[in-house]
Structures are given as C-alpha cells and as structure tokens.
Amino acid sequence: MPTSFTVVPVEGQEPQPSRPLEDPNQQLAECSSGEPGDGIPKESSPFINSAEMDRGNIYEGKNMALFEEEMDSNPMVSSLLNKLANYTNLTQGVVEHEADEDSKRKEIKAPRMGTFIGVYLPCLQNILGVILFLRLTWIVGTSGVLESFIIVFMCCACTMLTAISMSAIATNGVVPAGGSYYMISRSLGPEFGGAVGLCFYLGTTFAGAMYILGTIEILLTYISPSAAIFKAEDADGETEAMLNNMRVYGTCIVALMAIVVFVGVKYVNKLALVFLSCVILSIFAIYAGVIKTAFDPPDFPICLLGNRTLSRRNFDICAKFIEVNNETVTTKLWSLFCDSRSLNATCDEYFNLNNVTEIQGIPGIASGVLIDNLWSAYTEKGSIIEKKGHPSVTGTEEIKVGGLPYVFTDIMTYFTMLVGIYFPSVTGIMAGSNRSGDLRDAQKSIPTGTILAISTTSFIYLSCIVLFGACIEGVILRDKFGEAVNGNLVIGTLAWPSPWVIVIGSFFSTCGAGLQSLTGAPRLLQAIARDGIIPFLQVFGHGKANGEPTWALLLTACICEIGILIASLDSVAPILSMFFLMCYMFVNLACAVQTLLCTPNWRPRFKYYHWALSFLGMSLCFALMFICSWYYALIAMLIAGCIYKYIEYRGAEKEWGDGIRGLSLNAARYALLRVEHGPPHTKNWRPQVLVLLNLDSEQVVKHPRLLSFTSQLKAGKGLTIVGSVLQGIYLDKYIEAQKAEENIKSLMGVEKTKGFCQIVVSPSFRDGMSHLIQSAGLGGMTHNTVLMAWPQSWKQTDNPFSWKNFVDTVRETTAAQQALLVAKNIDLFPTNQERFSEGNVDVWWIVHDGGMLMLLPFLLRQHKVWRKCKMRIFTVAQMDDNSIQMKKDLQMFLYHLRLNAEVEVVEMFENDISAFTYEKTLMMEQRSQMLKQMQLSKNEREREAQLIHDRNTASHSAAVVKCDAAAATPEKVQMTWTKEKFIAEKHKNRETNITGFKDIFNMKPEWGNLNQSNVRRMHTAVKLNGVILNKSQHAQLVLLNMPGPPKNKKGDENYMEFLEVLTEGLNRVLLVRGGGREVITIYS
C-alpha cells in the first residue's frame, strides 16, 4: 500500500533511545489530518508519525542533514518499525483505519484467538443449521441421492471457490471491519461495495427470519403441537393455520430476540459455544444412529394403503380390522375411509381394492434401500406420497382424496426449487473474515479455518445424503413433517440414542443462529452507514454510547418481520439465497479483477488462487442465482443496480484504490491506443469541444452559461474539456489553480456537463491559451472544436483577454485545423432549465465551412431546451446568381442530409457605399490608432517619443508635423508625442491615459484618405447586418459564418470592429468557423 512517512532523526553521533509512543491511536488520528510542509495532502496510514512529533529537535541532528527537507513527511526506518510494532488491529464494528475521522481511539486489547476458535468453529456453526435438520432428508427423498449429490456438490463448490477468492483478498493486507463488505468495497469501489454490502445485509437479515421460522416449526410440529394458537377444522385448513401460527409466534420471537440483543449482546456471544455444542452433538447422534442401523435398526413402522403412505396422526393400528375375542372388529382406520364402523359400510373405492401393509421406515444401512432412493420423485402440490414398486390397484373412477389420512406434498417440487431451498445451508463462510479484528494472525487463520470448515461441512452434507438414502425408506424421506412416523422429526428417527437429541439440539441451534443473525446484521449496516457512501443510511451509523447499533437493530428487526410474515421457510430460503449468491459472486469478481490487473499492491499471502478459479466461482454463483429462481434473481439484481446507481448519483466520492478504478484505467488505456490518431471518418465526426472559460479574481467562472450551452450542444456525448488560464508562475499560483479547478468542476456538476477540467498557469495569458489549444486531450481523444465567449470588453486595454489575444486564438485554431465557435451575448443564452416553446434557430450560410453550420442546429435540437425550435437556413445570392435554382439545390442538399429546415435565398445587390459606412470606417480607424498606442510597451513608447522628437527637430515646426501625420494614410499615422508629454504620461494610470487620447475622435480626415479595403469590408458588414436584422432579429439563436482575420496582422483591431458591426442588434449569436474538413455527409 502507498505510504507516507515521518522521519525522526538521530541526534549526534551516539544513538539515542526513541521516545515511546504515548498513544499510538492518538498519533494515528493526528496523521490523518493535514500537515504543513509543501501543502500536498498525504494519504493517511497507521504507519505515519505525527508531523508535530519532535518538532523541536527535528533539525538538530547532523548525521541526516542531507535529508532535512524530507523529515517533515518521511520517517526513518527505525521510526517506521516502531510504528509497526505498536500498531494494533481494529475491533469489529468501527470504521476502518483509512477512513476514520475520530481524533482518538480507546486502547484495545491484543487479539488472542487462533484459527480453531476464531475461524473454524464460527464457520462451522454458521454453515450447519436449520436446513440440515429440517429439509435435507426431504431434499434427498424428492430429488434422489444422485441429484441431491449434484445439488450439494454445486453449492459446496461455489462456496469453496468463493472461499479461495476471499482468502486471497483477506490476506492482501489488514481487513479491519465489515468482513465481506469491506473486502468488496475496497476491491471493487464504493458503488459495488455499497450495493453488495446492502445485499449481504438483507441476506443476513432474511437468514435470521429463516432461522426463527425453523425454530417455530420445530416447536409447533415436533416439541409441542398443542401450543398452536390457530387450529385447523379440517385437513384443507392445516397449512393456513400453520402459517398464521408462524406469523404470531415469529413476531413475538423477533421482538424478544431484538430485546436480548439490545440489552445483552455479550451474553449472545458467550452462548454461541453452547449452541455450537448442540449442533456438533446432533451430528454425532446422526452418525451414531447410522452405525446402529447396521445391526439393530430402530422400530419406526410405516402404514401403507396399497402404495400410498398413511398419516399416523389419527389412528394407531395399521389394519382395516382386527380379531377381538374371536370377533372381527373394524379399526379406527376403517372409520376414516368408510361411512360407518360396520363391515358392510360404504368405503372408499381405493380402500376396498387395496390391502393395508406395514413396512419399516428405517430398514438400515445394509437393507439395500439405497438403490430405490437413487432417482428423483418430483410431484405436484397436493400429491399423495407413494412407494415406488409397491403393489397398488387403482379404481375405475377418480375419487376426491381430500380429508383422507394420506400424506400429501405441500408444494410442487422440481430440481431448481430444491437448489434455492438448500443453498442457505452452505452460507456462513464469511464468519471468519467478519472476526478478523479478533484474530491473532488473520492472514493465516482466515484461509486455513474457512477452507477447513467448508471441507468439513461439505463432507458432512455429502455423506449425510448417501447415508440418508441408504438407511431411510423413500416415502419417509419425502415426508417433510414426519406425519407417517407419528409426527416425529424424520432425521430424529435415525438418531441415537433418542430422537429428542436431534429435536432439542436443532431447536437450540436455530435459536442461536437467529440471535447471531440479529447481532451481526446491524453491525454490518452500521459499518456501511459509517462509511458515508449512502447518505440516507447515515442515521443508522449511530447507536448507544458503547457503539451498539440501536437504530440499525430496529431496522433489522423490521426487515426480519417481513420474512416472518411470509411465514414459509421454503419461500424465505430462495430469497436469502439470491442475496448471498450475489455477495459471493462479487467476491469472486473482486479477486479476478485484482489478479488480472496485476496491480502492484496485489500481493496476497495466500498463494493458492488463480483468476480462472475466481471466474469459475463467479460464473457458478451467477448460474445458481437463475437456477434457484430467475425472477428472484432479477429482483435482487434490480435492487443492487438501483443501489449502485444511487451511490453513483448521490453517494460520497471515495478513493479506496479499488479494482474497478484500475480496470477503468486499463480499459481507457487500451481504448486510447486503439483509437486512430488521425482524424475520424466524416460519419463518425462529432464536436469534441475545448471550452475556454474566463475566471475572475476569486477564481469564479465569469460566464457559467457557456457550460450550459456546452451541455445542450453535447448532451453528454463525445469529449468535453473545460479549460482556463491563470496568469503567473505555477509555484506561486498552484493553490489558486486548485481552487479554480474545484470551482469549475462544481459548476460542471451543476450544469450537468460531462467532461474533464484542465487549468494551465502561464506567465502570459496568451501563451496559456496557446498551450491549451495545442496540448489539451490525450492521444486520439483530442478536441476538434474550440468554444469561447465573445470578449465584450475587448476595447478596454486592461482586459487580459483583449482583442489581440482573441484574434491570435482565432488564427491558432485555424492553423490547428480546429473548428471555432464564438458565442456572443453568452449571458443571454438559456439555462438547462429553460424551454423554448417556439421560435427559430436561423443559420446564415455565407460560405461553405464543411457543414458545421448545418450540423450544430441539429445537435442543439436534440436537447429539450431547443427541441421545439424550427431550423431556418438563409443563404445570400449575388448579382449573377440564379436565386430560384439556388433554393432548389439547397432544398435537395438538405433532403440528402436528412435535415428538416426552411430554406430562403436572400438577394444582395450592388449599391453605393453609404455615408454611414464611411463614418463607421473613420471611427474604426481612429479607434485602431488609439488601441495601437495604448498597447505600446515602455520601451516602444520611448522609441516613439524619440522618433517624434527627431521629426520635430528636422521640420522645425510641431504644427506642420501634426498636419502631416493627420494627412497620412492610416497605416502611417503616428501619435505625436513630445518629450515632456511622454514624461508626464508615464506617471498616469490607464484611465488618465485613455482620457488623453480623446482628441483623436475629434480628428476627421477626408473620406477619400480612408483605406478602401476597410471601407469595402465595413460596407459588407453593415449591409449584411441589415439583412440579418430584417430576417432574424427575433430568432432564438443566429448562427453565421465567422470571417477569418486578415493575413496582414496590422488590421487585427479593425477585424474586431467588423465582427461587432456584423452582429450588432442580435440577441444570441454563434459565430462559426470551420476546421477545414467536411463534418457532414449525404452518404450512408
């Protein structure tokens, strides 16, 4: 892990004992805060010393004088080792060290637990549980030994592969708290971590509901059936009555367990060993019972009518009639199938045709019953459990069997459903990693203990499948609630010395597992809440003074109640299977991503992993999700996806060095290398925009509407680079640059502008702009269009973005073959919240620019701001042009371009140049001379003054010189400076300087002396502006070709005046200058 250090230097020649650490946790907290020095924030780490530690004697030593500059941040090796020795792991339930915001932590005891107590036994207790005791025999009987073996093998292989991936992640550094949530979030990022962490939390909570339902089922079915509150009046109502009993008792037990957890969680942890003892004792009783069946099978007779299994709850003698005192007497069974107790009574047809037989329910391991139990026996809901191969005679008519004492199936069974019910029995593999803070050596104990626990439980499950199939009759295995064996727990009939060992053991086991779930789930939610990645969960990060998560416990109990209201263990099990499978899938994904990225920090101590195994585990988890229940899988993925998008949209940004960030970097690098460095094909061309922003003295954006227009133009597509220039030296301005970047990024978020921000600090504002235009972007992902605001104050010389900078920027974009968009009156442009209900977007197509003018309105109208605006295209016809044919050709061109727009051809005829044009030209040239003089540097002014002084001396008349200067052409007009005026002027400020030039405007030479080229250009600008105002004065936006600057740089200031006249009187104008290539095509 990247680490910043603090050095404690050695004083003098003799080694000095290092000062002991008063409180390592205190120093740890101090290190996470900012420190003086170079101003660069360091990553917080438990190994960094406080910047203020030993501040007084830090520079006194001479042995390390060469490293004096680094001693504020980088420690000597001795100091580092001292930190490592004093560093203690964090307890479970607190925020991990790298995100902890507390300034102090309480001293904690050194962890003492080893592999067996800390990992192996907790995993064993969490894996073995309710499904083993209540459903495994039924799964074996329903799916057969072979398919049951496949189910168990798939699930155990899934958890084993997940454990391998988890071991690699857990041994790649310290896993302080949060267990699987911590591992996933730090490996895949906060979005995946939060989504999967919440799914794991929901899975753990529903697991608590499942354990509670199992507890109630054992209580009401096998221990005390008379305790039921709701009684069924007939056989059809038994299921509904049982579900209602589950709901009532379940609600009471949830409330009771929540109170126990709230009041005394330490007693829950102490009782964990007792509950585990019950599980282990029950398993030994099962194996002992299997061994006993080899020579002395227990006596559990089953009563069959034909091949149909009968429930022994309502009769005791398995016969139709018996002999009593040499007299044939009917039994209670007879009365259940016949309308009276007499021998000539009317009876059920199937009862008359078939004999009643009695067989042993547990024939023993040597009986060969395994062959009969190899194959599956899936049935519909309400089917009678029948013994395969047993003689049976069916009647001629199908008679209703409801109300008869048969053993019925309560749900429809099929392979995938059984996978969903069984999978929760292999969960619980995270118990060791969740306790990492309490282990002596977590990096050794977690892999060893977890894999040993999975191996042990896999052996138990697989062996139980074979042993159950070899010892127990198939009809008993399929009898979910043991009705054929007097309501006994099926697995209990096999146990030795008594079925009550299993019944009592499973009862306490499920109770303990439920308490553990209600203890662990709130702490997991608290860890997620304290990370701060999901804003609305932050309230659940608080709790009692001792850190117990009170609010999280309350929410957990409420969610658990939802599972209780479902009331069916078989319905709840697939739900938590989804959440656990999703969690395991992302653990495997995290390991695979980290392995494939080969990041330098990926150095697990556990070496027996491979990305292929992780990928196989991930694929198996994904497959099992859809095998269990495709609709539950989709719902779980939808929930995780919604949480992911919420965290991405609203969550706090966290940089945890996760694998997804590394994967994104690798993918970006791969894509950039594949992108052609040359220009793209015309069909793929889209504006990749460099937005040039101006900032004020507080580093705040002057024209935020420029970003609004960018988002409207781009709609989140393509590349957007937002750049700005700060004038100065980077070493002096880097803090201002950071502030400017933060302000721009904040504004980009508000305006929903997707892109990158780039700040350049340059001694010259002009050079900074040039650097941005030349170097923004990377590889093939470079901009092809520059968007900037029109410099409204270009006539003011104190404006850093003066007319000269603007014109040079225009020239540079042309030289770089980049398109240029200049938004005039940008503050009048609409925000993203505005909507134009009507209006026009007018395009004035004067010269062909590669199609930019056609493409931009189309892109703008994709955004909801401009969607209802109509597009109009105007073009100008000269004297010799056929305007009618031009309109037809333009309409055909637009048809081929698949663009909808109104077309109009405007005729401009030659006429005389107006006096207004001459006057505008005169004022322009006078202003140009003023601007030239105001831009002169000090040396240039001195040379100018000397030149004028020499002229005055040569002509012996200042008046004659002044007249000559006025009569000269504009290119040669010079300001008349005397030595005295120059000395006086150089001490004045700019405003005084500007006032000193007002007499220029009073000069009015003859119009014949004006530059005729300027007159013609001004004539074009005035006339074209009049035409545009006539047609488009009320348009929502006007786009027109931007004339290029003059080749002769002496006329740059005139160029700005031409553009001002051309766009005068228009509200919103976008001047467009093409990049020298076609950007739109008629071809497919």
TrEMBL record:
NCBIfam families: 2a30. It is a multi-pass membrane protein. Keywords: Cell membrane, Chloride, Glycoprotein, Ion transport, Membrane, Phosphoprotein, Potassium, Potassium transport, Symport, Transmembrane, Transmembrane helix, Transport. It is found in: Cell membrane. InterPro entries: AA-permease/SLC12A_dom (IPR004841), KCL_cotranspt (IPR000076), SLC12_C (IPR018491), SLC12A_fam (IPR004842). The chain crosses the membrane at residues 113-136, 148-171, 192-213, 246-265, 272-291, 411-431, 451-477, 497-515, 551-569, 575-597, 609-633. Residues 119-291, 412-690 form the Amino acid permease/ SLC12A domain. It catalyses: K(+)(in) + chloride(in) = K(+)(out) + chloride(out). One of its GO terms (cellular component) is plasma membrane. This is Solute carrier family 12 member 7. Residues 820-1084 form the SLC12A transporter C-terminal domain. Belongs to the SLC12A transporter family. K/Cl co-transporter subfamily. PANTHER family: SOLUTE CARRIER FAMILY 12 MEMBER 7, SOLUTE CARRIER FAMILY 12, CATION COTRANSPORTERS. GO terms for molecular function: potassium:chloride symporter activity.
